[in-house]
## 1
Amino acid sequence: MAVATGWLGSWQLSRAHEKLAAHQAMLDREQLAPWSAAQLLAALAQDPALAQTQAYHPVQLRGRWLADATVYLENRQMHGKPGFYVYTPLQLAGSGQVLAVQRGWAARDFSDRTRLPQLAQPEGEIVLRGRIAGEPGRLFEFADAPDAKGAGQIRQNLTIAAYAADYSLDLLPLTVVQTDAADDGLLRDWPAPDSGVDMHYGYAFQWFGLCALVVVLYVWFQLIRRLGGRRR
């Protein structure tokens, strides 16, 4: 038991070190020169898992918004206030490819929970700076959320596949989080990325603590108590 719990504690520490290395690599990518749309598409052709392997790599894209396909993910917070994460597809200039962009955060109207925020939707070609991301982050659900076709603009969670099916779009298998300033009324104070190592450190402490407890109990009952009984 001591060997098993000790090994589990060491395994949790190794997982923490792996996540720290991945987190540092992500922070390093954030400082790289931004990819153009052509570079992004070329990298995606070589690596279909680009959203995971190149997360946080900056991009600078030209295209136009497909404003009619805007969706709002509810119960997202910024500065401690609940609201929406706003997603709009961007049709890339030149290629015609479409990707989903997490444009920013908008406050919710609690007097009418179905009222959507009024967004400035620039027409024509725009230039967008952002960073590569994966699927939209999901919140806990007690039951399956209406992610699929016909779910409406306000949603709890969203997948790229459901988004594509709902609006008949051929979306790229990644998203982009917009980071540059834009006169559209949205906030973009995105939280810093979390390495997620605290959970592994907590589990490691528990396993090592259990390992120490097993050793102490063994020494007490199998050695000290037995030696004391023999002397008596």
Note: The chain is about 35% helix and 25% strand.
## 2
Amino acid sequence: MDSLDLVSNSTSEHEVFYRPADGRAVKRTWPGIYGQIPTASSGTLDRRNATPAEYLKRMALHIEVFASDIRLEGITVSDKPSMIIGQPPGQPSLVISQRWYAKEGLATNESIHDLLTGEGFRAVPSSYFGWYRPEDGVVIVDAKPDNFIRTHEGLIPIDLQMAQFDTDQLAAAGLSSDPSAPVIFIPR
């Protein structure tokens, strides 16, 4: 993996590499860190650190909802220190890959709004770029422009923090399972 070209190591979740042999972005989680997922917290939509299983469920949900071609590549153990204070080195990292997209312009909050509302999502005020879909309880946070790529195919979501809430979890986050909930635009 380290023989691949490093594209980014400045995100809070992954190191990103480019694999020219098959034109894929290869992403390795930081040792001992598995991203974040949405959570209900005191009547609001919040986020928390994910377990390895929750990270994998998040990727599966991304595939299901957005027809992403994310693949689990494997698990590595690194001698790098963990990003969690007090954790020893040698923590596992999950490795995924997805198609490499050529960027053709910038994602905007307006284009994200159009894409997500077109998929039946509703914006969640007072959240970290949160959205939810009342019909199936799919919840997204961190849906901001740097997690989308504008390509010749349109706007492509990558790396969204997702979960699927049941009716009780939606209510605990202050969200309605009523599909007739209003669609609003939240300027960011």
Note: The mean pLDDT is 88.
